[in-house]
Structure formats: structure tokens, C-alpha cells
Amino acid sequence: MKQLHFPFSLSFLLLILLLQCSKTLVHAQAPAPAPAGPTNVTKILEKAGGFTTLIHLLQTTQVDAQLNSLLNDSSQDLTLLAPTDAAFSTLKSGTLNSLTDEQKTALILFHVLPAFHPLTQFQTLSNPVRTQAGDNSYYQFPLNVTTTGNSVNISTGINNASVGGTVYTDNQLAVYQVDHVLLPMNIFGPHPPPPPPAPPKPKKKSAAAPLAALPVGSSDAVGGAITALGVAILVAFMGPFVWLDSEVK
Length: 249
What we know:
Number of strands: 6
Region (Disordered): 187-206
CATH class of the domain at 41-188: Mainly Beta
Number of helices: 8
Oligomer: single chain
Distance between the termini: 202 Å
Signal peptide: 1-28
Mean pLDDT: 79
Pfam families: Fasciclin
Radius of gyration: 47 Å
Largest sheet: 6 strands, mixed
CATH topology of the domain at 41-188: FAS1 domain
Strand content: 5-15%
Shape: elongated
Helix content: 25-40%
Structural class: alpha+beta
Protein name: FAS1 domain-containing protein
Subcellular location: Cell membrane
């Protein structure tokens, strides 16, 4: 049997064509990497599981849209202290239903810190810690953080909570699990004492009423009456003396 011999150049050309085809097939089969989507707080909590009540509150108050906008549109760093469903179950029955929509919004924002805080940096926070709820004075929304070893404890002035672990972190958003719902003073605390009443303002002295204008010609009549009255008084006073003088003579 005769063997077929291919010229070297033709063999080399076929080899190059085979390699090129295989490279083209490999590139066609490999999927392109999907672009990273925008950060979505509720999707992060849904994936983690155990945050049904918190997700419901985030959606009904529209705080989730607010947080997502801060993260994706303004590149704001945030830390979310996320109470679990078990944490919400420790609240007294009807607590959430008794709140107004405004109070529910403030309650959720009270669990959001306007900065990214790794667990190792909680010990460097200055108390009271400011939250997205706003004013951190005593009767408003104070939040105090203390650390002991690796444990992080949070106090609101009403109750305490502990950080149970990291749910999510990407160097812009940190989500930590907490075992109690953080209850702010502004909603659940005693109302501040009313300010003392202001001292009464001194009454202004009323100006003397002006004398009524006399009719034209009345000044002469008044002057004559005064003169007649003076003469009458003088006569009454001098009368006895005149009588005694006539008797002496």
C-alpha cells in the first residue's frame, strides 16, 4: 500500500487552521462576565433569610428605595443594624401597629448609620453615635456603642442589643445582624419635661387721657365762675370779722 506524503508547508498550514478554529470555538462557548448590578438592600436581606419583618417595614416605609438611592446614586457609605424576625417577635404585641407611618420610618432609619463601619472599628466610634434618624440628643435618637473583646453591644437608653454577626459587606455597605429591635427615646421613651413658663411681661402704663376740648367761649365762663366762687368764699370767711368790727365801734 502506498502512503500519501503531504508537503511540510501544507501540513503546517493545516495545523494553523485547526488551532485558529479551536480558539474561535473556545471563545464562542465562554459566556461574557455579567456586569455587577446596583446594590439592593432588600435583596441582600432576602438572600440571607430571617429578615421578613424588616424587609416588610423597609418596603412599606420606602426606606429601602432611599437607602438604595444613597448607595447607588450618591455613593454614600452605610451600615445597617438588621433585627432578625426573632428580634421583632420579642416586642410587645401590637407595638408596630401602634406606630404612625412617620414613626415607623424613624424606627427603621434609627438602625442605619451614615458611614461604613467594619466590626473591628466599632470601638473607635464616639458616643452618642449619629444615625439616619437625625438628632442624637438624649430625648431624640441617641445610640451608644460599647465593645468588649469581639462583642459589640448597642444601647438606646430604652433597651440593649448585641451584634450577632456579619450578613453582608462590600466596603460601602455593611449589614450586621442584631438580636433586638433598637427602640429610640423619641418614640418609646418618656417625654421631656415642659420648659418653665416665661415670666409675665410688665404691663405698659397707659398714657393719661387728654383733656376734652372746651367749646369756644367756655374759657371766659369758667374763669367767671371761678372768680365768683372765690368772692363767695372770701365773703363767707370775712363776714364774722366785719360784724365784730361794727359791734366794737
